[in-house]
Amino acid sequence: MRIASGRNRIAENSPLTKHVVAAGRFVWDAGSTPAASTIFNLIGILDKARLTKQIAASLRESLVVLEKAARASHAEATHESSKAESKYDTRGLEAAYLAGGQARQAKEIMASIKLYESLATRSFAPNEPVDLTALVELTADGALSLYFIGPKNGGLEIKHERKEITVITPSSPLGQGLIGRRAGQSWTDSLGGSVVKYRIVSVS
What we know:
Mean pLDDT: 75
Strand order of the largest sheet: 6-7-5-4-9-8
Number of helices: 3
Number of strands: 9
Low-confidence stretches: 1-43
Structural class: alpha+beta
Largest sheet: 6 strands, mixed
Order of helices and strands: EEEHHEEEEHEE
Strand content: 15-25%
């Protein structure tokens, strides 16, 4: 019996036991029926696998744009017209610095893509503390947002299953406030000179 990754369908009254994850599907052998919480935890893992693939895809799009800009900057830096006409003419030098910075950014994005492609995710029980790869529903002064705790690229916004998800890292100010806390906990923090009240709605 299978649960297709696209529809997450579960046949009723089907005897199911052990699971494996293969080719984007969960597969159970005949036997006893697992707890519903186990089934939904597995679905959560699969959804996060799709989410990390979307993050990697978004980073690839950024990489294409950056590489195009880096090639243009390199061409400008090495073009005949960029040669200094005097000691005060720094056009070529500025273009070279820009090209070098863009090349470094491209390497960082490539490393991030590899990281997210191999990132092991897991589903969190409702009472578990926030940690890496957790999905967190959080209110800030009553406004609800959804965050994914990722290893890099904080601030990246992804639309996943019609939900806006923002990536934050454990080292970011908000990430530091979330790590170790549990659903239902509240705290206040200063943001831009104002005091903001945060509350964790759910962790998954």
